[in-house]
Amino acid sequence: MSGTQLLHRSVAILLISLLTTPVWAATPAVPQLPNPGTVRMSKQDQEKLGLQAAGEVYKTMPVLPDSNPMTQYVQRLGKRLVAQIPQQYSWPYEFHVIAQKEINAFALPGGPMFVNVGTIAAAQNEAQLAGVMAHEMSHVYEQHSAKAATSTKRTIAEILGAAGGILGGSAVGDLARAGIQFGAGTLLMRYSREDESQADAVGAIIMYKAGYNPMELANFFEILNKQGGSPPQFLSDHPNPGNRSTAIEKEIRNWPHKTYQASSNEFQSANGIALKTRSYTAQEIAEGAKTGRWAKENMQSGAVPESMKQSVSAAANPAAAGSPETIANVTLEQVKPSGDFTQASGNGFSISYPSNWATASGQNSLTIAPKAGVGQNAIAYGVVISGARDSNANSLDQAAQDLIQNLQQSNPGMKQNGSIRSTSVNGTQGREVDLSSASPIQQNGAPLPERDRVVLVPVSNGNFLYLILISPERDFGALEPTFEKMLGSLRIQ
Questions:
Q1: Residue 29 burial (CB count, 10 A)
Q2: What is the per-residue pLDDT across 118-144, written as a single tens digit (0 to 9) for each?
Q3: CA-to-CA separations, 197 to 56, 148, 246, 257, 417, in angstroms, rounded
Q4: What average pLDDT score do residues 191-218 get?
Q5: What is the pLDDT of residue 27?
Q6: Which of 104, 158, 378, 396 has the fewest other C-beta atoms within 10 Å?
Q7: What 3-state class would DSSP assign to 428?
Q8: Please, what is the end-to-end C-alpha distance for the chain in angstroms?
């Protein structure tokens, strides 16, 4: 056989081989991060929102300085994950550690991330910690907080932010409208199950590209699920979108095989330090925040960035600066409603209110209150009205119960007084319930008891209108006729 014939035969065999190779034998494609899309909040505004929230963290939680070995390790791990994100989709991510026992982590709009010492101690290997961080980074990547802040559909937890910044606005009010709330010694960020599925999928890609097995993210959630007692805050903030293990396994099934890194000596060292580090419970942190302890200690340790030192320093001495969580003693005469009523309109509703009270509008919300009964971040007298969606509720009673649970979770010590009652609001059947809590009004160094009457009215499929009638218990009876008159004037448009 000549050389030419041999060449032709070799080419023919190669073509036959290529043509008969099954499609499934083709090399799997390396997964690529999706386009996160656009939102109505600019990148600059998201970064500003994140810095506002970070400032509140330094005021209310014990943050370890950047010189701490755990923080340095988390920062190196974070940089490895950030390197997997295309520059056009990335954010100025930064990484810090909070000295808190509970297992939790959160990433703020624009990129600041905080990981609890308890999370570093609970992770069994580096891949699990990387999974938690990649998941949190994905919430920023997908701009979930910005989407929540600009959405016309609000979850029941966001009602709590409606009073934030009333009659003038504040950083805390801005954050609450984006679903970022401070309370109970931690920061609460509420995500939908759809958000969680998206963060799992994007986080899995980041992990894979960084050399970690994405299944370790699901494994970490499983570890938390198997813990006894109350579920960790991390699970409360991150509702299970379904079977995480099955979903992630399906996601990565056709990705190219690679050898994953499970752990490292650096992780083992950081994990050991976490187990020995002095950390605090959420309750201890909440108590310390009231006295300005963490702001003071963060300033002394050098944990506070230069750009935030002025505001954090002021929070270190709440007695001198005037604590934003309390209101000087107010008499009923100072907040007494006028007999003359005027009308205000919100998103899909209108209501009448005393003409000597003031209004403050938020995203899909309206707060009505006397100026003397309002502080920088607190409301002692008034009415908060907000539209919300609870697609998981199959009845009015369930929607009311969901709201109560969210209120109690964000306000430790809040109690339900009596059962949920049927009520009629201008001819529409609704539900109401009375809750008790601590008023922001201080008397003799102690908060007055407060009554919060919650009224909900159905609007359409899964949509409700919530009203929270607020007053110190001592004055609720005197204000009740005004509250009832306001409810009777409510019109759903």
A1: 9
A2: 999 999 999 999 999 999 999 999 998
A3: 28, 16, 12, 23, 37
A4: 92
A5: 60
A6: 396
A7: strand
A8: 90
**Are 111 and 91 in contact, with CB atoms under 8 Å apart?**
yes
Strand partners, 438: 449
CB 39 within 8 A of CB 146: yes
Q: CA 85, CA 137: separation in Å to the nearest integer? A: 10
| CA–CA gap between residue 246 and residue 361 (Å, rounded) | 43
Q: Which among 50, 22, 266 has a CA at the least distance from the CA of 174?
A: 50
Contact 129/136 with Cβ under 8 angstroms? no
Mean pLDDT score, 77-81: 98
In whole angstroms, give the CA distance from residue 459 to residue 413. Answer: 30
452 closest CA partner among 440, 441, 468: 468
User: Rounded distance, CA 29 to CA 22, Å?
Assistant: 16
Q: Strand 415-425 to strand 428-443: parallel, antiparallel, or no bridges (unpaired)?
A: antiparallel
Nearest to 444 by CA among 328, 308, 287: 328
Residue 206, φ and ψ in degrees, nearest 5 = -60, -45
Cβ pair 490, 426 in contact under 8 A: yes
Instruction: Give the C-alpha separation, 325 to 165, whole Å.
Output: 12
The type of residue at 10 is S
Tokens of residue 137, six digits: 């980074």
pLDDT tens, 466-480? 899 999 999 999 999
Q: Which parts of 277-383 fold into alpha helices (H)?
A: 282-291, 293-301, 309-315, 318-321, 332-335
Give the span between the Cα atoms of 115 and 75, in whole angstroms.
Answer: 10
pTM over cut 0.85: no
| Domains of the chain (ranges, CATH numbers) | 43-155+190-319 (no CATH), 332-492 (3.40.1000.10)
Over its C-alpha atoms, the chain yields an Rg (Å, rounded) of 26
Measured distance CA(140)–CA(106) in Å, rounded:
10
Edge-first strand listing for the sheet containing 349-354: 341-346, 349-354, 491-492
The yes-or-no verdict on residue 448 having pLDDT over 70 is yes
User: What confidence tens digit (pLDDT) does each residue in 361-398 have?
Assistant: 765 678 899 988 887 567 889 998 887 777 667 788 88
Task: Fill in the amino acid letter for 351.
Answer: I
List, edge to edge, every strand of the sheet that includes 446-460.
Answer: 358-362, 365-369, 382-389, 463-472, 446-460, 428-443, 415-425
Whole-number Å distance between alpha carbons of 169 and 481: 29
112-116 vs 94-98, strand pairing mode? parallel
DSSP calls for 136-166: HHHHHHTTHHHHHHT-S---GGGGGGTTTTT
108 residue type, one letter? L
pLDDT tens, residue by residue, 315-369: 776 554 444 455 767 888 999 999 999 999 887 789 999 999 988 876 567 889 9
Read off the DSSP letter of residue 179.
T
How far is the C-alpha of 359 from the C-alpha of 216, rounded, in Å?
A: 49
